[in-house]
Amino acid sequence: MNALVFALLGYLLGSIPFAVVSSRLFGLADPRSYGSGNPGATNVLRSGSKPAALLTLFGDGAKGWLAVFLAQQFGGQPQDVALAGFAAFFGHLHPLFLGFRGGKGVATAAGVLLGFSPWLGLAALAVWLGVVWFFRYSSLGAIAAAITAPLFALRLLESSDMVTAVFCIALLLFWRHSGNLQRIRAGTEPKIGEGKDGPAAGG
């Protein structure tokens, strides 16, 4: 029963659409109406509002971390914690409050990894930041982090259930960004800092 409760709680937390919430708080257009149409921090940044994008980034990451933290605090076993984290990530991808059409889950995945292990989360964030710094593609950073996160998890996590959750999250992240990878190869993927009138792709 605990596993079901933790999974449901994680999913509901993951379903909170911080991109839409922050856009409304700052009086911006719905992020699903411009750019990539993706309710995530990168697309909110295309509105020109850095505070709204930062709030989205923080909120999306915090909900992933909180799902894991609550499962840990209320006596969840490692498999329960792993399930709660994955459910939060899945909730962001398929949110109840947005008709099951959500974002790509990069920030939420980072929050989940930080909840599993601070070192794991920081390692994945370092990969993302390094790639974004050099190439200015948020999606490429996400793909690189998705590839390397399972390798870090194998070294840093003792729970096989959490390692499995990281592998599943990484696979879904890679799949959600497969279109971005194709656009990067074609030279049509927008870089960070391009406005909302740029190519309708990206994160």
Write a structural description:
- With 203 residues, the chain is mainly alpha-helical.
- The chain has one domain (2-186).
- Helix content is 69%, strand content 0%.
- It contains 10 helices and no strands.
- α1 (2-14) runs antiparallel to α4 (50-73) and α5 packs parallel to α9.
- The longest helix has 24 residues, at 50-73.
- The radius of gyration is 16 Å and the shape is globular.
Kindly report the average pLDDT value: 93
Task: Give the helix level as a range of percent.
Answer: 55-70%
Distance between the termini: 36 Å
Give the strand content.
Answer: under 5%
Short description:
With 203 residues, this protein is mainly α. The chain has 10 helices and no strands.
Question: How do the strands and helices of this protein lay out in sequence?
Answer:
Elements: H1 2-14, H2 18-25, H3 41-45, H4 50-73, H5 78-93, H6 106-116, H7 118-135, H8 138-156, H9 160-176, H10 178-186
